[in-house]
């Protein structure tokens, strides 16, 4: 068998969610110093990635560590890998914030380390094609991304691709060199260090990675804070035993290096590996089924930073409002951008401690006050009595027609959309209701409505707005847009729903205000727009949206089965989604399109797509999720922090 190049990349993060600030000095002592010692004492090649914030914290608490790091870099033992100033989730923040994060990170690397890394570890291994041009523009020449999370969505890829550098195609069509990390590999080394896997078993696992040609393989690519320290996220973490876990790592790396043909290398040495068939392929990591690939198993997906935690959707929305203020101002200083990057950090959105969560709220409010960003509210236009053509009723169905819109609404089902035409009011509606029995499959034997709200909670009855209503009608003073208001009683409290039908613009605005007494654990999905299959050509249907980049990403749907909202388990309620970082997603076939946009300052949702064939018919649905379930949810934190008028949400459908 041919040789094996192995790299060990340690991720340093002093903002670790479950760790109180006063424990940071202990982490430096118990985790970061032994890491440097690993490279120095045994002359091992180690790669280290840290955010600018983490390096600043180390400089403040233990400047000697940075001196030792610089010495290791100068000696060629340590390679620095970059990421940004804060560990934010790139596919969930606007391009302006991603650019600022990369720029501010480089400034810290240069100031504290005297160098600018040119290989970047994608934060939390949460990738989108829109990020590639931003990394390239920031001066990075290669990315590190998890193989397992990506390859699961590409079963046609040869397994041998994981051992060689590839080229990730960005949203702009240009590519960037890519090195794969590996979830199973880093979990194997963690188990060895924790005493759950023997050294011989680990070496046997690595031997199985060899092939007929030289290969590269990640020995490690994850947190440094879990060796001889426990962050305290889970009750099952246990405690370190009497044997130093860093000593086990040292012994493992020595044993690896002692195997003939094995070498411990830096990441930049992985880029020189070549293979005529399996290396340097230009590939798209994203897919319609998984538009934002993430490391680890499927339960660990992008929803954990978007719509779970302690009401992630609301704090993300407030961060969007701050980003918009900075963008519009045009002359904001680095201090404001730096603070916003920190406020968007992933660690505030998962296992954050009570004390740090309280401090986070104070910092968020302080930046809002500094920038003059007040609590968001949705527009409440002045109303006037309706004139001209009034809605007509045909049983439970209301029909409204303006110069730009034709819509049918079901008053028996909370003003669910029975059919919607935008611009072209002839032919087939773009979306609406597919009735019970439309699909010849008992698993889909339901009414599939559009324009609805659904809350699903474990072991509780579903809460929806699908109840009979007696709507009231008005118009917007000054432009004749038609306003339809309705109130619905639910077991949790009142739902107020308002639709504004464009008179001259092909748009329907939907506003919700939820006056709920409690917020159970579960998923809250709004819109639930069901496409009319007869209105679109299935072969050319595609979704377009932004996932953190400046360039929109397009996902062709022909032949693809997608179900972002499918539960992974009883604990994790969704699998993936669209970041919608410019507040819009569009689905169309080149002839017709349907756009869905949101007001993110109130709540920043993600888009969940379902697209599959049910026997001979297409089922395609787009939902907006503001709340999902996973292990980071806290029952006491479910009441969203919005105005005292209730929880408000707005989306619009447009051509």
UniProtKB/TrEMBL annotation:
Q: Does the keyword NADP apply?
A: no
| Annotated Glycoside hydrolase family 57 N-terminal domain residues | 38-234
The answer to whether the entry has keyword Methyltransferase is no
Keywords from UniProt, A to Z, are:
Carbohydrate metabolism, Hydrolase
A Gene Ontology biological process term: carbohydrate metabolic process
Q: Which InterPro entries match?
A: GH57_Enzymes, Glyco_hydro/deAcase_b/a-brl, Glyco_hydro_57_N
Q: Which Pfam families match?
A: Glyco_hydro_57
Q: What does the record give under GO molecular function?
A: hydrolase activity
CDD domains according to UniProt: GH57N_PfGalA_like
Give the family per the record.
Belongs to the glycosyl hydrolase 57 family.
Protein name as catalogued: Glycosyl hydrolase family 57
Species annotation:
Oceanibacterium hippocampi
């Amino acid at each position: 068998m041919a040789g094996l190049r192995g790299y060990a990349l340690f991720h340093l993060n002093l903002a670790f969610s479950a760790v109180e600030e006063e424990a940071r000095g202990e982490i430096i002592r118990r985790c970061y110093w032994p890491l440097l010692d690993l490279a120095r004492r045994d002359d091992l090649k180690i790669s280290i990635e840290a955010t600018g914030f983490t390096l600043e914290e180390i400089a403040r608490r233990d400047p000697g560590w940075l001196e030792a790091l610089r010495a290791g870099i100068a000696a060629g033992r340590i390679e620095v890998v970059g990421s940004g100033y804060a560990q934010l989730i790139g596919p969930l923040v606007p391009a302006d914030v991603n650019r600022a994060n990369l720029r501010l990170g480089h400034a810290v690397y240069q100031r504290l380390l005297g160098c600018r890394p040119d290989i970047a570890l994608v934060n939390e291994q949460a990738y989108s094609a829109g990020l590639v041009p931003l990394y390239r523009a920031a001066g990075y020449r290669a990315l590190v991304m998890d193989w397992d999370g990506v390859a699961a969505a590409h079963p046609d890829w040869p397994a041998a691709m994981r051992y060689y550098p590839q080229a990730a195609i960005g949203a702009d069509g240009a590519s960037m060199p890519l090195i794969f990390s590996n979830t199973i590999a880093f979990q194997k080394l963690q188990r060895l260090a924790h005493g759950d896997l023997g050294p011989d078993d680990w070496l046997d696992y690595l031997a199985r990675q060899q092939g007929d040609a030289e290969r590269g393989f990640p020995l490690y690519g994850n947190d440094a804070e879990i060796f001889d320290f426990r962050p305290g996220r889970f009750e099952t973490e246990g405690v370190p035993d009497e044997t130093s876990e860093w000593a086990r790592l040292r012994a493992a790396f020595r044993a690896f290096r002692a195997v003939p043909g094995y070498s411990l290398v830096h990441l930049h040495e992985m880029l020189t590996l070549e293979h005529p068939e399996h290396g340097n392929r230009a590939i798209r990591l994203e897919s319609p089924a998984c538009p934002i690939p993430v490391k680890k198993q499927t339960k660990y997906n992008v929803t954990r930073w978007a719509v779970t935690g302690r009401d992630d959707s609301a704090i993300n929305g407030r961060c969007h409002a701050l980003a918009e203020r900075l963008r519009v101002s045009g002359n904001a200083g680095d201090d404001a951008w730096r603070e916003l990057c920190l406020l968007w950090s992933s660690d505030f959105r998962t296992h954050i401690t009570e004390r740090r969560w309280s401090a986070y709220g104070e910092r968020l409010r302080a930046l809002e006050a500094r920038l003059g960003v007040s609590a968001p509210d949705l527009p409440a236009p002045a109303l006037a009595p309706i004139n001209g053509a009034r809605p007509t009723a045909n049983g439970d169905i209301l029909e409204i027609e303006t110069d730009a819109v034709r819509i049918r609404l079901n008053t028996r089902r909370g003003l669910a959309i029975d059919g919607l035409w935008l611009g072209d009011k002839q032919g087939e509606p773009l979306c609406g209701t597919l009735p019970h029995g439309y699909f010849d499959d008992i698993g889909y034997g339901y009414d599939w409505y559009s324009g609805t709200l659904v809350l699903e909670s474990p072991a509780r009855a579903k809460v929806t707005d699908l109840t009979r209503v007696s709507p009231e009608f008005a118009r917007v003073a000054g432009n004749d847009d038609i306003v339809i208001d309705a109130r619905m009683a639910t077991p949790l409290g009142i739902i107020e729903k308002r639709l504004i039908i464009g008179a001259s613009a092909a748009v329907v605005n939907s506003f919700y205000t939820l006056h709920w007494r409690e917020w159970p654990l579960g998923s809250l999905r709004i819109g639930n727009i069901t496409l009319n299959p007869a209105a679109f050509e299935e072969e050319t249907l595609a979704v377009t949206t932004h996932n953190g980049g400046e360039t929109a990403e397009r996902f062709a749907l022909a032949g693809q089965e997608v179900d972002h909202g499918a539960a992974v388990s009883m604990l994790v309620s969704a699998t993936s989604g669209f970041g919608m970082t410019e507040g819009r997603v569009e689905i169309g076939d080149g002839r017709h399109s349907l756009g869905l946009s949101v007001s993110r300052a109130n709540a920043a949702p993600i888009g969940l797509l379902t697209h599959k064939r049910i026997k001979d018919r297409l089922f395609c649905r787009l939902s907006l999720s503001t709340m999902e379930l996973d292990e980071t949810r806290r029952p006491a934190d479910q009441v969203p922090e919005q105005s005292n008028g209730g929880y408000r949400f707005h989306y619009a459908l447009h051509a």
